[in-house]
Write a structure and sequence with these properties.
Elements lengths: L1 H19 L11 E6 L4 E8 L5 E8 L5 E12 L2 E7 L9 E8 L3 E5 L8 E8 L2 E9 L5 E10 L1
Antiparallel strand pairs: 1-2, 1-10, 2-3, 3-4, 4-5, 5-6, 6-7, 7-8, 8-9, 9-10
Amino acid sequence: MKRILLFLFVSTFLIFSNCHSQIPKGIYSIAGLWEMKSENSIMFEYWEISPDSSLQGKDFFINPNNDTVVIESIKIMCEDSNVYFVVSVPDQDEGKSVYFKMTEWTRNVFVFENKENIFPQVIRYYIKTDDLYSVILEGPDKDNKIRSIESKFTRK
């Protein structure tokens, strides 16, 4: 019985460790509070490292009444031996999360794709310095031309 329990514990640990060891270490540098300023507003992105080694966060802004308005919940996680960027937007996609699979990564660039999503189909994180990163959203527009939207975040 002890051998069976030990085998199950070790097997579970190896599966869990193997999956989470696939999350590139460089992506953890986005943990913290970030801001993006535009002409009309300031948007924030907040990331924290969860006990299971995933990253969880939110994009939000603070309205004129000082209320925090969450735009979307975001997560970078490992599932089925793949790494995903997961987005949940209130009142969109019938309340379901949208998964973007990590397809490329280097020390400072992380690319997630979901070709079945309308827009974006590609999400690129470019970590430029410890205090600056860009997120580029790419995908087809209504005329089927590829459009790109870049957001630059600075550490708060």
